[in-house]
Amino acid sequence: MILTVDVGNTNTVLGVFQEGKLIRDWRVSTDKDKTPDEYGILFYNLFNYAGLEVEGIKGMVISSVVPPVVTVLEKASRHYFNLKPLIIGPGVKTGMNIKMDNPREVGADRIVNAVAAYRKFGGPLIIIDFGTATTFCAVSREGDYLGGAIAPGIGISAEALFNYAAKLPRIELKRPERAIGKNTILAMQSGILFGFVGQVEGLVRRFKEEIGQDSRVVATGGLVGLIANETEIIEEVEPFLTLEGLYYIGLLNGVNE
Predict the structure, then answer these.
(1) Sequence-ordered list of residues with C-beta below 8 angstroms from that of 30, at least 6 positions apart, any chain
(2) Superfamily of the domain at 103-240
(3) pLDDT tens per residue, range 179-192
(4) DSSP annotation of 177
(5) In the chain, what percentage of residues exceed pLDDT 70?
(6) Which of 160, 155, 199, 153 lies closest to 174 in space, CA to CA?
(7) What is the set of active-site residues?
(8) Tens of pLDDT, residues 85-101
(9) What DSSP line would sit under 66-103, residue for residue?
(10) Level-2 CATH architecture, domain 2-87
(11) Which of 92, 231, 246, 252 reaches 20 to 30 Å from 197, CA-CA?
């Protein structure tokens, strides 16, 4: 089995693959202050609850946009799994040509998503990841990573309204029945949800003008369901795209299963 770990700014998603299939997944809060032992205990508890043997993990692949967590997870992996994990970063084989001004500055999660999506659907592709930030990535027909766009995520945008507008409350992110809100909460829900739908549709339209109208639009991330139900422009919803990409890259770099 291979354990894949995707560390995001808000959540960390873990998945266990066996013979190419995702057999178990978890989503936990990202905590920069956790020690290697605390992560080790977390792994053991999750595995025990799922009826999995820790000893069955033969490889581990980690992607992180939170650098301090990488060192901690690496120590936990060595101590509790007796493994040296594969850390996604410069020098790791991805099979994808990154056509950026500085390829090293591209977030690991974006490359991992691109690898998985291209493997599943071919190109050209537009990949949208709804997380703490909303990221848009473009992949050419030939499988080259071309670049993309980064926007504030839905959650932090809603929090910004609450924190910086004195009379606006903290709200639940849910779909209002109408675009025209009859009170402050409904008006905020409309502006945030339908506003983000408009952002997605607008950016996808511009991306297609640059890389081709036949580009397939693939979406992933913790908040993907909130937006995907509101627009026909998203063609594929892949909640575990990042974990699948980590698994593929792990195999490409000789991680044992």
Answers:
(1) 7, 8, 9, 10, 11, 12, 66, 69
(2) ATPase, nucleotide binding domain (3.30.420.40)
(3) 999 999 999 999 99
(4) S
(5) 100
(6) 155
(7) 109
(8) 999 988 899 999 999 99
(9) -HHHHHHHHHHIIIII---PEEPSTT---S--B-SSSG
(10) 2-Layer Sandwich (3.30)
(11) 246
